[in-house]
Design goal:
Elements lengths: L2 E5 L2 E4 L9 E6 L2 E6 L5 E2 L5 H13 L1 H15 L3
Antiparallel strand pairs: 1-2, 2-3, 3-4, 4-5
């Protein structure tokens, strides 16, 4: 699971064999959520509401970086 961003105790990553749509798995203090990079919708949230809101804010702030990392990884993985 490549971690593409660590900030403020949050770790943003994706699975090497992950699937569309582009999304990140966010870990914080033993809790998790998944954020779709296209719609910014959150799923599988085990974080406190305030932590989930912060994870979403960080995703918005680093959106281009996260999307670029997804694209680079999966283009490379597909051999393109």
């Amino acid at each position: 699971m490549p971690t593409v961003l660590r900030i403020g105790g949050f770790a943003f990553s994706f699975y090497s064999a992950d699937h569309d749509p582009p999304h990140v798995h966010v870990r914080y203090g033993g809790t998790l959520c998944r954020i779709d990079l296209s719609t910014l919708l959150m799923k599988n949230i085990s974080m406190k509401t305030s932590d989930a809101a912060r994870a979403l804010r960080l995703t918005v702030e680093h959106h281009e970086e996260l999307l670029a990392a997804w694209s680079a990884h999966f283009l490379k993985a597909s051999g393109q």
